[in-house]
Hints:
The first copy, chain A, is α/β, with parallel strands linked by helices. Chain A is 41% helix and 21% strand. Chains A and B meet through β9, α8 and α10 of A and α8 and α10 of B.
Amino acid sequence: MYFIGIDLGGTNLRGGAVTMDGHITHSAIKPTHAQQGVEHVIHNLKACIDELIASQNPSPLLGIGIGCPGIIEIKSGVIHTSPNLPGWNDVPLKQIIEEHFRVPVYIENDANTIAYGEKWYGAGRTVSSLICLTLGTGVGGGIILDGKIWHGCMGMAGEVGHMTIIYDGITCNCGNRGCLEAYASASALVKRTLELLNEGHKSTLSHICGKGEEVTAEIIYKAAKENDALSRRILHDIGIYLGIGIATLINLLNPEMIVIGGGMSHSWDMFYPSMVEEIRKRAFDIPVKSAQIVRAQLGDNAGIIGAVALISHALPT
Amino acid sequence: MYFIGIDLGGTNLRGGAVTMDGHITHSAIKPTHAQQGVEHVIHNLKACIDELIASQNPSPLLGIGIGCPGIIEIKSGVIHTSPNLPGWNDVPLKQIIEEHFRVPVYIENDANTIAYGEKWYGAGRTVSSLICLTLGTGVGGGIILDGKIWHGCMGMAGEVGHMTIIYDGITCNCGNRGCLEAYASASALVKRTLELLNEGHKSTLSHICGKGEEVTAEIIYKAAKENDALSRRILHDIGIYLGIGIATLINLLNPEMIVIGGGMSHSWDMFYPSMVEEIRKRAFDIPVKSAQIVRAQLGDNAGIIGAVALISHALPT
Lengths: 317, 317
């Protein structure tokens, strides 16, 4: 007996066959080919699921969980729109996959799926309330209260990346100014670094830039580890911005845990000290002391494992 | 059959005998005399409840709900600390009142009580999730999700007044900088007005100041209504600050409703336009459109009625 979890991203479609206790026994990855439209993506999705089923034969498949970006009507499993899946308007994905594979299917927003994965199989196993921040291209978020995802009335809750932290700050991709995402995503890190390099600040990264190589969050972290002052300063500042946002989250929701994942979380040791200092400065003592602030544990598999947790919990016991 | 609701404030102790459907049939108000210590306040509280019971004789009292400021362990009804009730450390108020009056008692943080009152008997009757902001001396808040107060793991959730809206802004009473409370409370309104008057800004209020009279939120609102440009500008700005904070709340929690109460909400018409404009500018379209933004309906009685809703819902049906 096993479940299938799918992380349906704009670039890749990642899937896993997962045991009842959250272990991935087989994984599959395919390009999403999102630009080729709905039919093609669904074709690729089915092929990915077929591969996973074949890998587990003859063990019975119990259900499929799918996390994907966008606005989803959870109960019906209809994807209203998705920023990374062009042409996806009101696609009844749950129905399509259920009719094809004849097992129960659960569809969820990908940031919520990651948070749910961390709650049930990752960093948050021992707590019932947590807020998960995924620091990647953007800053995604999921709010888990009493063990369940808080969706809000339109399924749009958890946009921690779009808290205003600096009211007259940088313009964010969402159109607002001063969002956390504009300061603490991997993209923001790279953008800020390039700006400062262009302004002529000294850094070992200048060499990379000069050679026309791409500066990535990983390269900046590596430079920081090797004591590059500019890289260290930028990551230190990101800690401050994260701290401002997390302090607000703690004062508002008094969660048991804040979980930080995504690519940027690899730089944890560089932004953690300033982040925690800022949180302590800004939030009330009692909720700060009661909030564990930890790194995500499931890495790139959080989406797959979270999708499985969602479908397995949705089934009658 | 009736309930008693108590709003135990630092200055006054207000109580009401309330019917099953949320109508106050008799009210009582007594000074709290908080400075005289725990014993004295409890004595006054009992006297207030006695008066309310006498007013309803021989109808049976079903339970007592009490809202008060501070950090409360809800289940045991112990008040750990209270900023407005000096000396209240670990007072088992629920037990004391239950043993004296022999009816079930429910103790809750006052800002949560107000939010709960608005949910069950006020502006929020038709919704299941709302966030209530009470703009008074401070900015209090209560978060209602699925019809219930979200307490957080230490009962400290809902501190909407202490969201950071301007990271390097005014120092707040809590020690943090740039909290919503430092910009959008009645105290902030008065403080800002006096600052601008002292800087020599023209206003019809200068006259009041010159005579040594106290400038209050009410007087500033009155001046704004009479077209005083300075007062209008300050209230307009408060709308912007509220809008920044509320946009973050909407992006995070996607609630069905935002309820605004407290003394400052009397200036609603002066801050509403800039507040709504700012919210629309900052928050995502779908959650903004689905969030009703309304004035509180229960006024000064929200605390009493909310306390009753809490005790009546806590009883077995």
